[in-house]
TrEMBL record:
Residues 74-156 form the DyP dimeric alpha+beta barrel domain. Pfam families: DyP_N. Residues 296-311 have a biased composition (Basic and acidic residues). This is Dyp-type peroxidase. Keywords: Iron, Metal-binding, Oxidoreductase, Peroxidase. InterPro entries: Dimeric_a/b-barrel, DyP_N, Dyp_peroxidase. Residues 282-320 are annotated as: Disordered. Its cofactor is heme b.
Length: 461
């Protein structure tokens, strides 16, 4: 289904000032609804085979041209730092990447606050091992097109002796499906200046393209540093992947322990996120869910917090308000627009079960691949993890953490402001446990062709 169809009409167009034909589609293209897909992680045993794979796959990698008209299926390709080493990029190019990217996500665990159950030593293989070299993702709104496209990609890498498939994770959601904790997700993406489409109501002014795509001015007025040569860096972006296992049993027990009725449970669930299960925001539907509002992308993000400064409708510590404070007056000031990310999250495994309350339900394979894109993804994720997700000082909430993806400590609390007395809920648990993570670089189409054409001798430069 095309994005324009889901919006109920043609999108208002605006001038294009970024090179859409050279940018990978996933950077701008919204995840379709319904959606099917697969994330494949590959290891390069032979650099020549890796470069041959890129040469063969690149013609199938969709560009962002007319990104708002999502096609039936598209492929994206991203490379880890160790993958680029294995592919034989020149040493000068390798050194031009940021240190956090070269180190990898596992090595940044302290800065990302990945402790305890989220520690890399607890991650699923092959995450954090340095063995992940190429990430290939297929997105589609058609089951048949998805299967055909995945098989086409597999045909190209399975026939090469120097490529090993480490994992392949199918994902998807059908009409009416919710994420593993029972919510509609992927609402509220940033508008990007020069992408060719006017912002939707509630997106705010378009953010400078350079915050998300290398080679263009950012919010500070100048382009961010990028890998070189220019053909490698320009029109690329960085990608973070974090695999979360959803603890559905723990989540459902928490809701039941702190409420008496189903209506109270649904309201508490909404307060944790800032939206009802349907996606309807509490700012616009404060007392009961409104599925029609939640399903309407022209209305479900069209709000500010100006009339809710103290969080009586949307708690200051809710997941949505932490990840995008909008016009909230914060105790610790920050420019929200320089901390925005493009999200391409995908759900995997069993669907949400509202009746699952046993500890065993926590171990049923289901969860979320949280994919985020930014021209400074490593720096932005460190900020979000340190300041907005696993801290509450920026909202004057002390030690409180994000109720959705925060790593909770024993005795953790969640505050629901209300008059005359706030409600403080004790014993909130970690509902999503990190099971893996990687940093990738998503090159432009020109860069993929450049890497695919590198001579073997480049490894000695």
């Amino acid at each position: 289904m095309h994005l324009v169809d889901r919006l109920g009409g043609e999108l208002p167009r605006s001038p294009v000032t970024v090179e859409l034909d050279d940018i990978q589609a996933t950077v701008l293209r919204y995840r379709p609804e319904p959606y099917y897909g697969t994330h494949v992680l590959l290891h390069i045993d032979d650099g020549r085979a890796g470069r041959e794979l890129l040469r063969n796959l690149t013609p199938y990698v969709a560009s962002a041209a007319e990104w708002w008209r999502a096609g039936e299926a598209w492929i994206s390709v991203a490379l880890s730092y160790t993958g680029m080493v294995a592919l034989g990029l020149p040493q000068a190019s390798l050194r031009s990447f940021p240190e956090a990217f070269r180190s990898g996500m596992a090595a940044q665990a302290d800065k990302l606050r990945d402790y305890g159950p989220n520690d890399p030593k607890n991650w699923d293989a092959p995450f954090g091992t340095g063995q992940v070299h190429i990430g290939v993702s297929v997105f589609s709104d058609s089951e048949q097109a998805w299967r055909e496209t995945v098989e086409m990609a597999r045909h190209h890498y399975r026939r090469l002796a120097g490529i090993t498939e480490l994992s392949a994770q199918a994902f998807g959601a059908q009409p009416g499906d919710l994420n593993p904790l029972g919510y509609k997700d992927s609402i509220g993406q940033p508008a990007i200046e020069g992408s060719g489409v006017e912002p939707l109501p509630g997106q705010g002014r378009p953010i400078k393209a350079g915050e998300f795509i290398l080679g263009y001015p950012g919010e500070g007025g100048a382009p961010l540093p990028m890998p070189h040569p220019d053909v490698l860096g320009r029109n690329g972006t960085f990608v973070g992947l974090r695999k979360y296992q959803s603890r559905v049993g723990t989540f459902n027990r928490f809701l039941r322990e702190h409420t008496r009725t189903e209506q109270e449970r649904e309201l508490l669930a909404a307060k944790l996120v800032g939206r009802w299960r349907s996606g309807a925001p509490l700012t616009l539907a404060p007392s009961q869910d409104d599925p029609a509002l939640g399903a309407d992308p022209r209305r479900n993000n069209d709000f500010t917090y100006a009339d809710d400064p103290h969080g009586h409708q949307v708690p200051l510590g809710s997941h949505m308000r932490r990840m995008n404070p909008r016009d909230t007056v914060m105790t610790q000031l920050a420019d929200v627009n320089v901390h925005r990310i493009i999200r391409r999250s995908t759900t995997f495994g069993a669907p949400y079960d509202p009746d699952a309350t046993s500890p065993e339900a926590d171990e049923v394979p289901r969860g979320l691949y949280f994919l985020f894109l930014s021209a400074k993804a490593m720096e932005t994720m460190e900020f979000l993890q340190q300041e907005w997700i696993n801290n509450g000082n920026f909202m004057d909430l002390g030690d409180e953490r994000d109720p959705n993806i925060g790593l909770q400590e024993e005795g953790a609390t969640f505050t629901i402001p209300r008059a005359p007395v706030r409600r403080r809920i004790h014993g909130i648990q970690t509902f999503n446990v990190l099971r893996g993570g990687e940093y990738f670089f998503m090159p432009s189409l020109s860069a993929l062709r450049w890497i695919g054409g590198l001579p073997a001798a480049s490894t000695r430069l």
